[in-house]
């Protein structure tokens, strides 16, 4: 069973949307942002060390990063549906990855 570790008001909604479009069964575990800092709770870090949402678990697999999750779900369960062309996949991964802010702040 696919489990979506879902933080309120987050890009985890992309994953829920995709799962609905693919007609897959899944379970949602909800996490609430701290009302002051708006950060994710520590309990999310126990699921994945990044401590951000979305994260999915699918059997033994734990996967973070919405772009990677989307690719995984489409590849594994899509049967050709909703698969973007390769060039678009790379753009999505680069622009949404957690490493991107670090890259942009690099002085070189
Ligand atoms: N590059 C990641 C971004 C993950 C991310 O920053 N998630 C935000 C919500 S959209 C989050 O968990 N924020 C809470 C926090 O940083 O504590 C992805 O695309 O999944």
Ligands: glutathione
Amino- and carboxy-terminal Cα gap: 44 Å
Task: Compute the number of helices.
Answer: 5
Biggest sheet: strands, sense, closure?
A: 4 strands, mixed
List the domain count as a whole number: 1
SSE order, as H and E?
Answer: EHEHEEHHH
Helix/strand/pairing category: alpha+beta
What's the CATH H-level homologous superfamily?
A: Glutaredoxin
Please outline what is shown here.
By secondary structure, the protein is an alpha+beta fold. It has helices spanning 12-22, 42-47, 66-77, 86-96, 100-104, and strands at 2-7, 26-31, 55-58, 61-64. It has one domain: Glutaredoxin (3-Layer(aba) Sandwich), CATH 3.40.30.
Annotate the secondary structure layout.
Blueprint: E1 2-7, H1 12-22, E2 26-31, H2 42-47, E3 55-58, E4 61-64, H3 66-77, H4 86-96, H5 100-104
Parallel strand pairs: 1-2
Antiparallel strand pairs: 1-3, 3-4
Helix pairs in contact: 1-3, 3-4
Bound molecules: glutathione (GSH).
The site of glutathione has 14 residues, from α3.
């Amino acid at each position: 069973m696919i489990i979506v570790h879902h933080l309120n008001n987050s890009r985890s909604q992309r994953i829920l949307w995709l799962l609905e479009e693919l007609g897959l069964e899944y379970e949602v575990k909800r996490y609430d942002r701290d009302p002051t800092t708006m950060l994710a709770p520590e309990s999310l870090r126990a699921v994945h060390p990044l401590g951000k949402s979305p994260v999915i678990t699918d059997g033994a697999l734990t996967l973070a990063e919405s772009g990677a999750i989307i690719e995984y779900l489409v590849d594994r369960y899509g049967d050709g549906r909703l698969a973007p062309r390769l060039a678009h996949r790379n753009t999505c991964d680069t622009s949404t990855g957690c490493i991107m802010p670090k890259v942009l702040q690099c002085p070189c």
